[in-house]
Design goal:
alpha+beta, Penicillin binding protein transpeptidase fold, Beta-lactamase, 5 domains, 5-stranded antiparallel sheet, 5-stranded mixed sheet, 22 helices, 29 strands, about 35% helix
Length: about 775
């Protein structure tokens, strides 16, 4: 037989021309039909916790690679396209057989559609004609050109019709059988393989006897063709049909809806831990039921794994179905007043700036900032206290004093950098009350920020799902040492926000926590953390109604402890270690400063070398006094004999004024020798209110007052007050005169004591 070179050339030319024509047509008429999948939200174990209709109102779940079931693939391929892995979208033998059968019998008796062709038909439905069939065949080749066989199968399994608005093997498996495709039995697989051919008559719940007969028929055929053995056949034939359910999973509706709206993907694999989620749903539901008789109806919880900033627990409300109490509101992202929960961030900033150390002292005495006069929760004042005590007891007045030192503006800017969106939006309107809850925050923001303290000051975006793009947006917001100092204080259990029944929580893992109660008892907060988890709890009413017994300590913290007890029962989790940027030193416990030789009460304190305050203690001063200790002498009037030297507390004038105003006893220095003619300019009056260089913002129609107060030495009896050089009046030194501004502008407040010493401050007034 001679070789026909011309025929070979013609074949090659025809093949090349056909290929070139296909490529050209593929470019001109690309086959790119986007599929609108339903959104499926999964937990950390890959279990579906929520799902949503596609944009075209279909239940159409993406069939993932992990869903492939060998028996399912074999059953459908055996029934629909035995040679799927051997053709390129078109099966010539099947086409020839169909043509012969249809022509010989003058009607359509068999089809030749491959799975690839069926995918194209489902993606682009057309009227049944030979022209449509030719286009379908071309599209099938395009599909094979652009997709792998496995990807085509995924498309096919995702699009198969099961009646109504249910499409896809996985969709039918989940909605009707409440099973993942990989867990289906041979009988169930057979049902899912035959329903797509007659979805309107064989669909689940339509005609069970018809579906059962068709299923058993195909089971026997699969057995005779060797797909299943006789034992499997016998068991499958005896298996009853599953009841028709069509119940989409809606296990964690707040979380599912939020994740869907936030990321809008076909499949969202979250880090939600099913065991933790079950714990918080059960515990929170029981806890809210216990407090409903106190008119407290809602609670929200978020749990963050500190290592990776992953959200592992989320509860928008204790009962999503509770319409009477607005259970569908998502409390995790609702904006509420934070109470005292922002205070730890203020103290951490102050540690970082070297303004304070834990054993340093601060005055818990009345303060007036442009008319703003905060009170502590118990409406008492404690005088001089340590920084550690101030934070652990959540005292308001020292916190406002500390905020005044740092500055409201810088603090709010930092809070914005830490993710508190509403605080940053309202930055122009907020004042000193922000540290006491005079602002709006979300539970997730609070928990996220506390988690940054647990991470030694590293703040990075929350990680919601496994496909989330990882960024390098992590920033250091606090030093390691500052975070450790705050954590150490928040771990103390000798504090007023400790629940009454702590003995019921003896197995709770060691945690640092902070509570908060908003004005009017509308919000109760408790945020706790250890090295592993940060747990945020909010309790209250979504209506904003307050409750007399609502508080962070007695309502929210017990729930926090219960949750930690459940998710880390008797854990051996490592605790935080003091970082290298901290060191120890002795300080005077009375003044909080580095001690002198005569400081008797000294304690160890953490500090930052080269950054923390290093003033020497001047807690005591030596005074020349008469033998009966009723008269004090200066170096000019001290007699040659008949005197002694005694140590007295060297107390700030504002603290002396506080002691005298509240009739508190203290070791007061005697009145100076009345016969001494020396004038002590350094002991002149010190104006406490109004504060210098302060703008007072007042309501003009309310005739608001500015209070006047000066600290003077003990030998003074009267103070003379002046406003813009106009005499206001003569007052006893303990009196608190009032001044009502009539016009906006600058004011100079001056006072003189009865010894001729004076002082003044400049302020301004603005009316709104």
């Amino acid at each position: 037989m001679t070789f026909n070179r011309g025929l070979l050339v013609k074949i090659l030319f025809f093949t090349f021309s056909t290929f070139l024509l296909f490529i050209t047509l593929d470019l001109i008429f690309p086959f790119n039909e986007p599929i609108n999948y339903s959104t499926v939200v999964k937990n950390n174990n890959g279990e579906i916790i929520d799902c949503f209709l596609s944009k075209d109102e279909q239940w159409r779940f993406l069939f993932e690679e992990s869903d492939f079931n060998e028996h399912l693939v074999n059953a459908i391929l055996h029934k629909e396209d035995k040679y799927f892995f051997y053709h390129y979208g078109i099966n010539p033998i099947a086409i020839a057989r169909a043509l012969i059968n249809n022509l010989s019998k003058q009607k359509k008796t068999s089809g030749a559609s491959t799975i690839s062709m069926q995918v194209c038909r489902m993606l682009k439905p057309k009227e049944r004609s030979y022209k449509s069939k030719l286009i379908e065949m071309f599209n099938a080749v395009q599909l094979e050109w652009h997709y792998s066989k496995k990807e085509i199968l995924q498309l096919y399994f995702s699009l198969l019709p099961y009646g109504g608005n249910v499409q896809g093997v996985k969709t039918a498996s989940i909605l009707f059988l409440n099973k993942e495709p990989k867990d289906l039995s041979p009988a169930q697989i057979t049902c899912l393989s035959i329903i797509p051919n007659r979805p309107n008559s064989l669909g689940f719940g339509r005609n069970d006897s018809l579906l059962l007969d068709a299923r058993n028929k195909w089971l026997k055929r699969y057995c005779s063709d060797g797909l299943i053995d006789s034992i499997t056949l016998k068991n499958a034939l005896n298996e009853p049909l599953e009841e028709y359910t069509k119940s989409p999973p809606k296990l964690i509706p707040h979380f599912g809806r939020r994740i869907k709206n936030k990321f809008n993907k076909a499949v969202i694999n979250t880090y939600l831990d099913p065991e933790i989620q079950d714990d918080i749903q059960r515990i929170t539901s029981l806890h809210v039921n216990d407090v409903k008789n106190l008119n407290i109806n809602n609670a929200s919880v978020i749990i963050i794994d500190n290592k990776n900033q992953t959200v592992v627990g989320y509860l928008g409300s204790s009962n999503f179905s509770d319409k009477e109490n607005a259970g569908q509101v998502d409390g995790v992202k609702a904006i509420r007043s934070p109470g005292s929960t922002l205070k730890p961030f203020l103290y951490t900033i102050a540690f970082d700036k070297g303004i304070i150390t834990p054993k340093a002292t601060i005055n818990d005495i009345p303060i007036n900032l442009a008319g703003y006069r905060p009170n502590n929760f118990d409406e008492n004042f404690n005088g001089r206290i340590s920084i550690s005590e101030s934070l652990s007891r959540s005292l308001n007045v020292p916190s406002v004093r500390l905020l005044s030192k740092i500055g409201v503006g810088p603090f709010i800017t930092k809070m914005g950098n830490y993710g508190f969106e509403q605080i940053y939006k309202d930055r122009e309107k907020l004042g000193h009350s922000v540290i006491l809850g005079g602002c709006g925050v979300r539970l997730e923001e609070l928990a996220h920020a506390y988690s940054s303290i647990a991470n030694y000051g590293i703040h990075k975006p929350l990680n919601w799902h496994k496909e989330q793009r990882q960024t390098n947006d992590s920033i250091r917001i606090f030093s390691k040492g500052a975070c450790y100092l705050t954590t150490d204080i928040l771990t103390q259990i000798t504090r007023p926000d400790l629940p009454n029944k702590l003995e019921n929580n003896i197995n709770i893992p060691k945690i640092a926590w902070k509570t908060g109660t908003s004005y009017g008892r509308r919000d109760a907060w408790s945020i706790g953390y250890n090295a592993k988890y940060t747990v945020g709890v909010w309790i209250g009413n979504f209506t904003g109604e307050g409750a007399r017994d609502l508080s962070g300590a007695q309502t929210a913290t017990p729930l926090l402890f219960k949750i930690f007890n459940a998710i880390q029962y008797q854990t051996k989790e490592m605790w935080f270690a003091a970082p290298n940027d901290l060191d120890f030193r002795y300080i005077c416990s009375e003044s909080g400063k580095t001690p002198q030789e005569d400081c008797k009460n000294q304690v160890l304190d953490f500090y930052f070398p080269k950054k923390s305050p290093n003033e020497k203690c001047e807690h005591y001063k030596k005074v020349f006094v008469s033998p009966n200790e009723k008269t004090a002498y200066c170096t000019r009037c001290v007699p040659e004999s008949g005197y002694k030297i005694k140590k007295y507390l060297n107390i700030e004038k504002e603290l002396i004024s506080f002691y005298e105003l509240f009739n508190l006893s203290y070791d007061a220095e005697p009145i100076h020798n009345s016969e001494c003619e020396r004038i002590f300019n350094d002991e002149g009056p010190e104006i406490i209110f109004p504060e210098k260089e302060t703008e007072y913002i007042l309501y003009k129609s309310s005739n608001q007052k500015i209070f006047l107060k000066a600290s003077v030495s003990k030998d003074v009896k009267y103070i003379y007050w002046f406003v813009n050089s106009k005499f206001l009046g003569k007052y006893e030194k303990d009196a608190v005169p009032e001044f009502i501004p009539k016009e906006a502008g600058h004011y100079i407040f001056s006072c003189s004591d009865d010894k001729g010493r004076n002082s003044s401050v400049k302020t301004s007034v603005r009316f709104i």
